[in-house]
Amino acid sequence: MNTSHSDQTTRGAKEIYLDKTYLENNPTWHVEDSPWKAQQIRLMLCRHNIAANTICEIGCGAGEVLKQLSWEYPTTQFFGYELSPDAYELCKTRETQSVKYFMENLLVREEKFDVLLCIDVFEHVEDYIGFLKSLKSKATYKVFHIPLDITVSAVLRNTMISARQKVGHLHYFTQETALATLRDSGYEIVDYFFTRSFDGLPSRSLKSKIAKLPRKILYMMSPNLMVKLLGGCSLLVLTK
Predict the structure, then answer these.
(1) Can you give the pTM of this predicted structure?
(2) 12 pLDDT exceeds 70?
(3) Of 182, 184, 181, 192, whose CA–CA distance to 223 is shortest?
């Protein structure tokens, strides 16, 4: 899962990305999920015939999502911004002529891009509304990937606290609150769909393996109900 944050966050909120805590908890920086995430982004861009000359990602983590996209869009220039020194070291190993990475705060720069990616990021940001408002002017189109952590299962099993401790989630969303957050921050919602990590990514535990079949069955019957009850999905949103 990619992570970054604006300078408006407190030192306490940032520490796990700066003092190797996040790296110790997530040594791959979720690189293994990047091909699947890139596939979801490609699908969204294709649905709306968006041909971008420049694509930027804020909080690009290890940089693998941009690398994956660069293979699909060989004439596009890619730019990744990341504040964690550990993640930036991983980024630099992926840099090519068309993919460049910067350990800088995009929010204080003047650049504007055709498409901006914010993939699993603003749930980590203390002032997430301020962050989103500052981000809006950086691109024509913005693509957000938002974990939907609030589910009946998560509340009953108290699993949201593990997302806070291991991967630094400070805020938790349903589909409705995620979309409302973007609208309240001034974004126009163009399109959105669920991304099905429960069957698109390898199961990381016995519990997730056991839950895969009922999730698939219930999703076929009612995607919205399945997501609210059992989770295992995020929301991909295209905005202007």
Answers:
(1) 0.88
(2) no
(3) 192
